[in-house]
Amino acid sequence: xxxxxxxxxxxxxxxxxxxxxxxxxxxxxxxxxxxxxxxxxxxxxxxxxxxxxxxxxxxxxxxxxxxxxxxxxxxxxxxxxxxxxxxxxxxxxxxxxxxxxxxxxxxxxxxxxxxxxxxxxxxxxxxxxxxxxxxxxxxxxxxxxxxxxxxxxxxxxxxxxxxxxxxxxxxxxxxxxxxxxxxxxxxxxxxxxxxxxxxxxxxxxxxxxxxxxxxxxxxxxxxxxxxxxxxxxxxxxxxxxxxxxxxxxxxxxxxxxxxxxxxxxxxxxxxxxxxxxxxxxxxxxxxxxxxxxxx
Amino acid sequence: xxxxxxxxxxxxxxxxxxxxxxxxxxxxxxxxxxxxxxxxxxxxxxxxxxxxxxxxxxxxxxxxxxxxxxxxxxxxxxxxxxxxxxxxxxxxxxxxxxxxxxxxxxxxxxxxxxxxxxxxxxxxxxxxxxxxxxxxxxxxxxxxxxxxxxxxxxxxxxxxxxxxxxxxxxxxxxxxxxxxxxxxxxxxxxxxxxxxxxxxxxxxxxxxxxxxxxxxxxxxxxxxxxxxxxxxxxxxxxxxxxxxxxxxxxxxxxxxxxxxxxxxxxxxxxxxxxxxxxxxxxxxxxxxxxxxxxxxxxxxxxxxxxxxxxxxxxxxxxxxxxxxxxxx
Lengths: 295, 328
Prior knowledge:
Chain A has 295 residues and is mainly alpha-helical. Chain A has a single domain, classed as 3-Layer(aba) Sandwich (Rossmann fold). Chain A has helices spanning 41-49, 64-67, 82-95, 102-108, 129-138, 151-165, 176-182, 186-192, 194-202, 215-220, 222-233, 261-270, 272-282, 289-292, and strands spanning 31-33, 118-120, 143-148, 210-214.
């Protein structure tokens, strides 16, 4: 069997649509947001989707670098216009291949035209050095954002979500040992060490292209956080995101089990070293994280 | 649903073998197996760099009791892998090990305490987990493992990335995990190198750097596939000595140069494709020469990168001269 180089025939899609009917932009994303999971990435996607300087993909998380987009999606993609449909068609074609095709991935973003666009996939926080290097070498001007959140709060939010979605077995949220065992789930462990994630990406990125933002600021002053992120991405922070306010957080109301003081303290103990590492490596609001737990 | 902690005596403070007896999850007394409840070593790869040879050498060696299957895949996949070979089932120890492993597989979280206790079956002998997939572990997991087993020795068998990748592609094609491709077309070969499963196993300098960040220098050692080809008896001696086994004891009737995998079908590698793969790995070949040393120092020269390496070293020397100048 011969594997044909996939992108040669892209000008005409399966449905016969002419891709040239859209203004073509550069064949690359302008930025990626690599997480953290449960640290405001959905809020960011919602803010950017309706901002006039952006054309965001019809699905928030492309999962290309980590899973070649071979994932089961819980939510249907946006399908507002032909551009959305074409993007999903191209993504499906790309996903059908076994190999990482960064050229093909970059071409997905031609559909943005003259606007900014990016991929918000929190699972990229788990990428290994080898893949991070491949991505950055291929897209040397890519901006990278990481939204950081206190590991104790973040993990509680993740465990609550995983239990709700039944991706982990239900656990007794009032039993510290049981909760501590859940922290040993690799999917939790790999997303919880922010200092390592940031160090991995910093090792390959130019300092001016990488920025850490904080969930603390989303809680405290979302309008300011929005301004900072938009400025970093090269967009106009004075333009509104449609009628969406900066403090709109549609995810916040989701059920979360009660976090008792004993369990909170047990989780904090589990992350003691990481909390200290975050204070040292990330700075900003992270400097106050250890003190919240008496460290 | 509530989880039952499987080992009642757990107090979280036992490190590398300060507890020797206990009950297994079936209530079976493990007094017969008075071993340290932890592996003595891990072999973290590389895939296609002689790890099967190593397992076969250690399995019949009288100083070792090796698990009934070579790759436990616990730290990367919690044992949830499809196995191509049935496990050894020689005695009660093997059966008990496999039972415990099956039990562990049912859990969704990384339980290093129970993983360590799998090795209680080794008794006073040495034992370890030879899982090349551990070369792909992230820092987060490596740190947990080394923190839990601070005296764990870690071995990495390094192989020239060009040869290694070709061997992996050959195996993948043979096993059907990689679709057949035109092996004479350099660009098609490169596309197959971009299979994430191949890519993340192809950078030994990064793998070694990751593990070195957490394992004490005296507990970590890189060995070379080059030595397996040139002088397997010497390599065997070096590894056994590092692991604390007696290199003078034979591995049953198995001789050091016997390698069951060596004769397997390999795809034909043309000079053009070889040069293209080398180009793809040029930076990594140089990084290996610098970081791993030993036989890796000659890897770039195999592909004509020696001149660049010479200049690179020269630049390092010039830096050193400047530094000496400055100090003076």
